[in-house]
Amino acid sequence: MSLKDRKKLAELIEKLIKGKASKNEIISLYNFFLSHQTIFKWPKEFENKELVEKEIFNKIQKQAKIGPYKESKLSKLRSLNFIKYAAVLVIFISVCYFIFNNEETNKTNIVIENNIEIGTDKATLTLEDGSNIVLEKGKTYKKENIKSDGEKIVYEASQSEPVPKLTYNFLTVPKGGQFYIDLEDGTKVWLNADSKLKYPIKFIDGQPRDVELLYGEAYFIVSPSTKHHGDKFRVISNHQEIEVLGTEFNIKAYQNDNVVETVLVEGKINVDINNENKILLPNQQLKYSKLTNTSEINTVNALYETAWRFGYFKFYKKSFFEVSKVLERWYNVKIVFEKNELKDFKITGVSSKHQNIENFLKTLKNTNNITYEIKEDIIYIK
């Protein structure tokens, strides 16, 4: 760890212990613990690590109004429903704010030299007549009950006469993009990179509220049926149909992936796969294999699976190959492994999506001796 980083860390710890740390500073310290607990050595001059860890945890609990500190081990910190509270309190400081390399690495400044762009808010709206509208930051769009500020699109509920038939729009998010949509019934949908959603511009009373995730990944917070005369909300996606009995869930159904993953965050959903119904409860994940036409339900930490919605990559024992697919979609690059064994390398950690991809790669290089080379939009892992 460089002298500058040591000094900064010491200042933050002192402010925390004295009760003078701001919310941002508390989150910075939490981020340090979460990201560097297992792969970086704790500096000798900060001996009472558990005390600092406990103080961080208690401060966050106090702000989030949750229970008392029970265990100082980071396993408990990781299981905390933290991202949800942090999204309200303050945006996380990038993990790479503290890159604690060894002394040799810190002797030189690493200059980032690549043209790989960080993903941003952008999408293409396809209207009922087939025309396409490009949505992106800095551009506004408005038509009847539809409006967009370039970062989201909102369908306002219409007070006009009921529509005789469903009329559909499509929202397509390219690689290197993301977008948020408010449907006409109040349902909120976040679309990840390389995703496409089909949905009615207005739902019909007395009929199921059906939308279709044609491909990609989406996070849904569904307006309950009780607000819509009991009309069900259903999501059709890649070999499965999901009836929403609760509120929040995530679907990952990319075209080139052999597995479709559905994770429940809150409430309850019923997933119909090949005429077989499976009920999911919070923190359960249904994995459906396209290759074997089989499915299984596992218990997961839903926050790891949905961190993308809050602007973060959050991996827990994911293979480098799985991680590479996430990076490829967000940064619109291609990642090539020159050694097959590197694909199985396990990665655990948190990283901001709003940083240059080379920051992520440098961290792997400095901590695990994994080298890389960037040639235009292709990254070679060696």
UniProtKB/TrEMBL annotation:
Sorted UniProt keywords: Membrane, Transmembrane, Transmembrane helix
Domain of life: Bacteria
Domain FecR protein: 172-269
Domain Protein FecR C-terminal: 312-381
Parts of the chain that traverse the membrane: 82-100
Name listed for the protein in its UniProt record: FecR family protein
